[in-house]
Amino acid sequence: MSKEQSCVLKAWEVTVRKTQQAKKRANSIFGTVSVAPQTDDDTTTTTDDIDDDSSTNRSSIGELYHAERVLPNGDYYTGQWYDSFPHGHGKYLWTDGCMYIGDWYNGKTMGRGKFGWPSGASYEGEFKSGYMDGVGLYTGPSGDTYKGQWVMNLKHGHGIKRFANGDVYDGEWRRGLQESHGKYQWRDGSYYIGEWKNAMICGKGTFIWTDGNRYDGFWDDGLPRGNGTFKWADGSFYVGHWSNDPEEMNGTYYPSGDEGNPEWDPKDVFNNLSEYKICSGERVPVLPSQKKLSVWNSSKRVEKPRRMSVDGRVSVGVDRAFEKMNMWGTESGEGAADIDSTTRRDLDAEMMRLEAEGFIQSLRPTPAPMRLPRAGRKQGETISKGHRNYELMLNLQLGIRHAVGKQAPVVSLDLKHSAFDPKEKVWTRFPPEGTKYTPPHQSTEFKWKDYCPLVFRSLRKLFKVDPADYMLSICGNDALRELSSPGKSGSFFYLTNDDRYMIKTMKKSETKVLLRMLAAYYNHVRAFENTLVIRFYGLHCVKLTGPIQKKVRFVIMGNLFCSEYSIHRRFDLKGSSLGRTTDKPESEINSNTILKDLDLNFIFRLQKAWYQEFIRQVDKDCEFLEQERIMDYSLLVGIHFREASVAGELIPSGARTPIGEFEDETAPRLSGADVDQLLSDPTRWASIRLGGNMPARAERTMRRSDCEFQLVGEPTGEYYEVVMIFGIIDILQDYDISKKLEHAYKSIQYDPTSISAVDPRLYSRRFRDFIFKVFTEDN
């Protein structure tokens, strides 16, 4: 090795050594931040030593130090400080009397801490990204306490709630409400133990009074409903079907001996239970994540010149680092050949080691900044008079209005096997002049068929669909909208004007599959309330009379993307690679475009409780589809980005406006405060569920250029706050002879594991493997 090369290598080694020593700086040349814990010696600086000049100098080079400051808006902070925000351990006092003492990370409460309200309420426990998140104890101003698990300011998981009036609840919570299994004990000693739903006693459970009487059985909305047994302390009991409606109530009384209570009325139980109310508890007035921090902006601070990277982020010294790394020659690469192969190999090994340790992550090619996609038009063409399918729409609306309007309300969700019989269908003739049972209309004569009407009526009740709203959405004055192009299967799709329901025309084979699996589908969605499988509301057929006698079968489904949030990105994910890219040029892609597996450039990180529930439900749903020999289904994902600039550029989470620059407060964006408002309003909690309006973080990924079919890209560390909507769709394709032939034919030309048409067992395993790589736990 020449003397010049030796000097160059030494200079490079000095650069690497300095980088390792400076890795805890916010703007190090290798772009990583690591804060070492401070010792007592580090925190003994007095306030006299922290004058404006010294704090300015320290903050300008990005070190962690102790500060005591009265901020511009009157807030007070004392503790560890980094750059322009609390970072480490510190105490923050707001002017309204709220106070936080604990751990901070880049201006957000993160770790353990205690938050106090001026009302006397307090929370002590774990925080994450500004939210009460983890295990903690909340004490309300009137004496209510809750000790247990939290997720994003909501009680979620196991916890014990002690109410000020003496009642106690010990059990599971979901989204701030009692859910699943728990025990509620009233102050007089009576208690209920069993299932809960949306803070109401619902499901199977036992109520025990202090006098020894008890009820074991099913409940609905806090009252006995269904099969149950009431037992007295003397051993006598009553068995029957319970209901608040006297006409539905029936049962048998069994005395314990010769003496009984023949005059006892089951209604006495309902009257007695009316005295036992479930406390709603207190509402947190202001959530910790809603508290804003005042940014320190010293007039004496002198900013060093900073270089803007290609994605708009500020960096320091990156160009200098590249200069030192490229000392072997000019920009054209001259002189690089002067290094012998051993030296080159040693340098490559050292670079790989540093990259693995995270020191040179910022030296990789930086992706271009992300922008909000171009907004698409409202989907679909309105079906007005003169449209080729106008009469079909009228027939459909007439049939549904007739079918739903004449049906009696569902009494019980327990259906007989005969209700699922494919022959269980009702034909109705609709002549233009009308009949005794059908209204006159302006369309041509047609026949209407309802498949398994009792089953779909029960499904609509199970999915909490109001019959009047259902008819109004589909059969109201507003016309349906036909999507511009049919799907791959040749089916046509129609949307209701309020976007709540989607109507899909069906092939005969798909109708047979749905009817075959209908009983299993019904049992599955009934057993798993949070199932991600698409919701079916009705299966019908219109038969046009005349010489052609054409039959049009269609199914009514829920529209997955009917949400209060605008959908910015849509992905259809299967876990296969062959043909799984969009065929549109970049200029034609907008917010309505359905992208595919190889277009996906994110990993979605869910809160721990949500992620655990997600993997459990995906496993259950895939097992159900596998048992029914279904394949070729996909996970449809919609993403709403919560923060974007006025120019339309997406703002990564943790990105802040540089000191001294103006941030437009009127920019049209959905900030974290909007989600806080959603979470703080109990009437809107129901809109957040697994797969629906879920807050999450999306980490951007980049695929390697040398790997054409890399399904999941490499994480970049660039995160975006998002709201997610997702569900499993296209579940009516079984592995029939046509799919087996497709698999055999394509396997000759392509990798058999890359194609969509595979055995349901293999499809389910591949689908889950891929989805569990794309969705991960947010650590």
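Second entry:
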Amino acid sequence: KKMAQPPKHCGSREHMGAGKAIAVLTSGGDAQGMNAAVRAVVRVGIYTGAKVYFVHEGYQGLVDGGDNIKEATWESVSMMLQLGGTVIGSARCQDFRTREGRLKAARNLVKRGITNLCVIGGDGSLTGADTFRAEWSSLLAELLKTGGITAEEAKKSSYLNIVGMVGSIDNDFCGTDMTIGTDSALHRIMEIVDAITTTAQSHQRTFVLEVMGRHCGYLALITSLACGADWVFIPESPPEDGWEDHLCRRLTETRLGGSRLNIIIVAEGAIDRHGKAITSDDVKDLVVKRLGYDTRVTILGHVQRGGTPSAFDRILGSRMGVEAVMALLEGTPDTPACVVSLSGNQAVRLPLMECVQVTKDVTTAMNEKRFDDAVKLRGRSFQNNWNVYKLLAHIRPPSTKSGHTLAVLNVGAPAAGMNAAVRSTVRIGLIHGHRMLAVHDGFEGLALGKVEDISWDKVGGWTGLGGSKLGTKRTLPKKYFEEISATISTFGIHGLIIIGGFEAFMGSLELMEGRAKFEELCIPICVIPATVSNNVPGSDFSIGADTALNTITTTCDRIKQSAAGTKRRVFIIETMGGYCGYLATMAGLAGGADAAYIFEEHFSIRDLQINVEHLTEKMKTTVKRGLVLRNEHCNENYTTDFIYNLYTEEGKGIFDCRKNVLGHMQQGGAPTPFDRNFGTKMGAKSVAWITGKIKECSRHGRIFANTADSACLLGMRKRSLVFQPLTELKEQTDFEHRIPKEQWWLKLRPILKILAKYNIELDTSEKALMEHVRQKRISQESM
């Protein structure tokens, strides 16, 4: 006998949507990643048993009805993931702003039995949705009166649930760390900045780049951090009066320091302290008139909205889509309209109107020239970025020295973003008055004395460079204790900042063990995780993983395109990661894979068989291609060749197979905006910590650090950057397989399977609860 209602606690989501209907629309300016969100809403909606409708052309389609509102199928969202913009169209709609228009829209929904609306757009679109919901019962009453709908229909649609997702490249919505499209827009901007840098250097030019953001300086700010710009103009924090002199002084200093170019970033909404606009042409004229530099203006415009979504935006859109469907189906007449978003690394639900209010408060603060409040209201991540930018761009190294010496080294395999971390470590160290040393070739270089002073100018332009400029090795320090101790005392090193992967973590633990015998090793140590594998304990992300993920995703797109052309073809792709399945899983989500085999989730021959059968079924639909990812060490016997052979044999006459081993291309390339910015912030944070530790451990001019908390790893945990003693992390590590015992991203695996049409349990036991924006702002510790 079947249970009519699954018990609430078991997390069964498969019949949750039976008898319900969901409509999804995209509105306002388009943003890359909207399609990923639409795809997830459609597929997860269908998975729960609900009917899902596309609303074409945003609110205009909702008002016009007819063919604009169409039922969606599983296959109708195939191949959407890698497309920019929004496939279902978006329009600015005047009609919906009138009561007349909203009456038509309500009738169109009621006639189709749709009581759940998912809106993907900016704050304007979401405010419109809230108004619609507030008026719902009065709209129904009016339609009943005029005979637009029957009493029966009105009863069935007595209330409307609304969930919003923020799609906006400006990242201008308060309460959300990242809006859908922001990361992709940064990718477009950085591609252009990198391209402009090469031509500017050839001619010793100054470039003024104008990026989007009428009321929000997020894109401009992150761009400046990620490319090491000389100056940035953002609407939230206009420059002090007399900025013209300061700017010219800055540019001259950079040139005297040996740089062949200057980059100035201007947000389109930039203003001065008196609210007067600062345009890119104003800045250009100033530089030409005062300094006579050859200056060019580039306005990036709509390029920033275009192109394929980044891996992050696809995963963000997919995660938010799942969360939106859950929030809609769990909604009651009493739950306020909510927005689903990411805070740090967690999915959260926030009351829509609170977010809209805080977003409006920022604009009000700017209009009333309360600029400090405007920056605060943008949230702590924005504040943190702004503070790091000011440190790196506006403060010159002091003439008085601290008397302390810090050494920085790279350990393990190269990872994109290592150089950005080294650059900010060196520059922030110099700002603190320290002597900074660069160690070449990891622990081995430290033993062999490959150490040299590194200056402010030496690290100029490093943020955009992939790989490791210092050189890096996997060698561990244990066998070199005597030599390393000698180097430490020869150069008078007071603190070590070690940027690298699992070897950086292991090696630092070895240095701590060596403290008992070698007093020289009793100095503060800070580890910054940097590896494409993302397998370092104590951090949700490591520098370089985002770049590798984007490389894999781009490759998967190309391979899928090839498979779509040949039809009936399955590709098996092997990714890096050691024993850690992060890259395979996340690339599976971002690339729309049918399966991703990883070490952490045991699989048997029966599972492989189920996957083959699943693909056989898929070949009967309109989507005649498959994509299977395999982590390099997921199983020593089920190798890539074995899986390829198995699929080839079992798929005979139904599909053929191809295999690709991606290899070292995953370690290369220019770092993504995330890795540049993450590296920059981690470097800055580590120097501040180690400076404090050196002071703490100083006795009569000597440094003696022997406590557990004098050797820490700086990691990103859920919502903040935290320092964790290495010895504590030991407990959380599986040393044999070089992975953390618990990994947050394993919770995303069910989403991967549901989006690939597997009927499995979606455990949402870690429910995203409603949070309040106001209290959240105040209570959070600063990053």
